[in-house]
Amino acid sequence: MKVADLAELAARNLREAVLRNSLTTLGIAVGVASLVALLSLGVGLQQLVDRSVARAGLFDTVSVRPRQSAPLGQGVGLRRTPRDAADLQPPRVLDDAARNEIAALPNVVEVNPEVRFTAEARREPNSQLVTVSGMAQSSQSSGTLDDMTGNFFSGPDAEEAIVQGDLAKRLLANGKAPASLLGQEITLRFAQRQALPPRSEQAQPEAPNQAASPDEDAMGFSIVPSEKKFRVVGVLPASDSVGGQARFNNAGLYLPLAVAEKLQVVQRDDLRDVARSTMSVGTRYAALNVLVNSPAAVAQIESRVSDMGFAAFSLIDVTRNLRTFFAIFDLFLGIFGSLALAVASLGIINTLVMAILERRREIGVLKALGAANRDVRQLFFAEAGVMGLVGGVFGVLLGWAIGRAIQFGTVLYLKRQGLNPPNIWSVPWWLVLGAIGFAVLVSLASGIYPASRAARLDPVEALRYE
Predict the structure, then answer these.
(1) Averages of pLDDT over each 10 residues, the chain, 466 residues
(2) Is CB count within 10 Å lower at the N or C end of the chain?
């Protein structure tokens, strides 16, 4: 039987029992709609997490620290080799030489020091302790600040600040909007290092029992309070906003990296160095942030940095676990969504079995005219496939409409709660094609039994039926 004749017969047979076939097709559409709606939610949530992590610079950034500075017991994302575990090499100092060596690695875009400290932000009459972090100029074009209100730093040496919405709310009075802090000045009070001259140039202590330094020529520093004013040029979303996102060096206030370095702020590793018997000469970094040109190269950079004798950390391993979680989550959503389609497949079987009982004489005539069992089987398969195709298309449209309705309701609810609503719904093209193809496949599978039963009918018995 020709394909055109097969399609014509299948379409005519489906039109003869419009109500029953329409209800069966509607059942398929509802099953596909539930499948599309649930999977769209899973895909949308995964894309929301991926966008937030990617825009925050978490996929293409590697944090490098001296091995002795790596927190004890830290295992997530920390690349350790058997040589590391055996401690066969003395720990290296993270200095300018190490920075240049890391910057020379392939796929490395830039290497910046991590400047991070605690300070008091004050705008009379309010004040708040806040974590301050230096921000490189490259952050302007990385997409990290797309959700910021205001502008980026006017220059690498500008005495300007970008603040989180939480800090802006605490510094403002009378519940003003965080954006109203733009253009105003805030004062930072912090602990500053002041270098000391060599001990040989200082007056010797008069107390005879005072312990001498292991190195009489070693230089140190004193810690003094210092203040500096900065003008607010940008405000980031508050953390209670759904659109707010974590960043690789999440902080409450950001300064230009060059300005933060010039402040000579006391950091955690400075106090650790004081406790050592010897102090390094020259610039020494607590940590370096390595920007890589592609997330695919992060693992390679981690391995190379680890081979240099440093501790390397990234969130690639964490994101792999997230992807595994979402894969399992989407699998369960797909299973629950397929249950409705499985119920609809029973309707297809029932419809086609009833069609066999009603069209026994027609089947007998077809066989008497020379139709083979294969032709009869293909006819019922075609009818099942058409119902699956039509139901799949309408199901995708219905699932998309349900998704848009849920997205609209979510946005409305979050706005009433004062939150910034994200897009949690996504219907990618592969889901559309996959849902339609799955509907057709289930329909064809449901048509196996009715088609085989129709093909086995004896034409003599079928013509005698009526």
Answers:
(1) 70 76 88 89 82 66 76 47 48 84 90 89 89 86 75 90 88 81 91 72 47 46 86 80 45 90 79 56 78 84 88 76 80 83 84 77 76 80 87 92 87 78 82 90 87 77 63
(2) C
Bridge partners (DSSP) of residue 230 are 186
Do β-strands 160-164 and 221-236 pair in parallel, antiparallel, or remain unpaired? parallel
Both 157 and 76 in one domain: the answer is yes
Q: Are 143 and 53 in contact (CB under 8 A)?
A: no
> 246 and 349 in one domain?
no
- Tell me the β-bridge partners of 290: 62, 111
Please check whether residues 131 and 191 belong to one and the same domain. yes
d(CA 189, CA 229): 9
Domain extent, residue 294, equals 60-203+213-314
* Look-up of token digits 């990296």: 257
Note whether residue 208 is domain-resident. no
**Into how many domains does the chain fold?**
2
Burial 238-255 (b: 16+ CB within 10 A, else e): beebeebbebbbebbbbb
Pair 40, 70 in one domain: no
| Residues whose CB is less than 8 angstroms from the CB of residue 369 and which lie 6 or more positions away in sequence, other chains included | none
This model's pTM is above 0.90: no
β-bridge partners, 116: 133
